[in-house]
Specification:
Number of helices: 6
CATH architecture of the largest domain: Roll
Radius of gyration: 39 Å
CATH class of the largest domain: Alpha Beta
Structural class: alpha+beta
Number of strands: 14
CATH superfamily of the largest domain: Alpha carbonic anhydrase
Distance between the termini: 132 Å
Shape: globular
Largest sheet: 11 strands, mixed
Order of helices and strands: HHHEEEEEEEEEEHEHEEHE
CATH topology of the largest domain: Carbonic Anhydrase II
Oligomer: single chain
Strand content: 15-25%
Length: 380
């Protein structure tokens, strides 16, 4: 081997070793940088939501101890989240159900409550566990919030002319101060049709009662001499200083002349029929959840003066639909008003039997007076 060849070989080996050493250093540095970058990425990924939360909620970043226990906390949080989600889902269904129950339990057929939650809807459209129905009135008391429906002072009841006691000469016409109203609407709430308004006041010994709305039942809720009248109108009042105090003036309708009895002249009968025709009876009444404009003014005194001038039955009862709240003072006028068979038929098209009257309830020793106002706070 020549000296020249040997020298070249040594140089080649030396260069190779130098290159290997340089590559090792470069790889080590790149590996170090890569690991550092990886740690920085991981740290920023972990910190990013915390930094955003800090800017939004102005909360300090977690401590080092918090970081160390992150995995444990996160696992516990996942467990709690699943349990909470399950609980909220169950609670949401329960709350929705209870919401319906609460809304309905505070609104009766007469539109008022036992507490401060008072409005002018004649009957709530919301149900309880199931929607209450006229087809199963005996089941009302079993629905949540309707316990009063099974109590002893319920409405409606039956009146008998032959057994009336405590007959007085008081007239409702002397206690009402009603005015005519225009711009009214007749609305269908799913259980009957009604008209809202500020129609005036009804003065009783314990104060003035504001007349808020009237609505209809065909056939009548109350019975007279063991029969239902063709229909009945409820005129609902609440005391001006206490919305829990309710008084209802009620009037029978008859379509058969033999039951009209003590009846005024034909001009008065025409006024009664015109009143009902103006509301749309005998024509097309509004469908469920709809309303229609009342064509002319609403003047109850002009239409029903003869009834207001006559005698009446008075007793303490309840709403005639759920929640059947008791303590309602009823003033049921004895003299009926006229309604035509076509008018009754137009109503029954929307509310076929067994809608929309409740069976009469037991009197259970309650006093029924005729033609006399008794203090509304003395009975319950």
């Amino acid at each position: 081997m020549s000296v020249a060849f040997y020298t070249k070989a040594c140089v080649f080996v030396a260069v190779f070793q130098i290159c290997q050493a340089a590559q090792s250093v470069t790889f080590s540095q790149e590996s170090s940088v890569s690991d550092e970058s990886k740690l920085v990425f991981q740290h920023r990924t972990f910190k990013k939501p915390l930094v955003r939360r800090q800017s939004q909620e102005e909360r300090p970043l977690p401590s080092d101890d918090d970081h160390k226990s992150f995995e444990v906390q996160h696992s516990a949080k996942l467990v709690r989240h699943k349990m909470q989600h399950k609980k909220q889902k169950h609670h949401g269904r329960h709350a929705e159900k209870e919401g319906h129950q609460h809304q309905h339990s505070h609104r009766g057929e007469e539109g008022y409550a036992t507490g401060s939650d008072v409005d002018t809807d004649s009957e709530s459209k919301e149900g309880h566990d199931t929607e209450w129905s006229y087809s199963a009135p005996d089941d009302w008391a079993g629905l949540t919030g309707n316990a009063d429906c099974g109590h002893a002072a319920q409405s409606p009841i039956q009146f008998n002319d032959s057994s009336s006691t405590n007959v007085g000469s008081d007239r409702l016409i002397d206690r009402v101060n009603y005015g005519a109203m225009t711009g009214r609407k007749l609305k269908n709430n799913g259980h009957n049709v009604q008209v809202d308004g500020e129609f005036g006041n009804f003065t009783l010994p314990d104060g003035d009662y504001a007349f808020k709305q009237f609505h209809f039942h065909f056939p009548s809720d109350h019975k007279i001499n063991n029969r239902n009248a063709a229909g009945e109108m409820h005129m609902v009042h609440k005391r001006t200083d206490d919305a829990t105090k309710i008084a209802v003036i009620s009037m029978f309708f008859e379509s058969d002349p033999q039951y009209l009895g003590d009846y005024p002249d034909s001009s008065q009968r025409k006024a009664e029929l015109d009143f009902m025709s103006n509301l749309g009876f005998g024509g097309t009444l509004p469908a469920k959840d709809a309303d229609v404009d009342v064509a002319l003014g609403v003047d109850l005194v002009s239409a029903f003066r003869a009834q207001l001038e006559g005698t009446y039955f008075h007793y303490v009862g309840s709403f005639t639909t759920p929640p059947c709240t008791e303590g309602v003072h009823w003033y049921v006028m004895r003299r009926p008003a006229a309604v035509s068979t076509d008018m009754v038929a137009s109503f029954k098209t929307l509310f076929p039997n067994p809608m929309n009257n409740r069976p009469v309830q037991a009197v259970n020793g309650r006093t029924v007076v005729v033609g006399a106002i008794s203090e509304p706070t003395t009975s319950s």
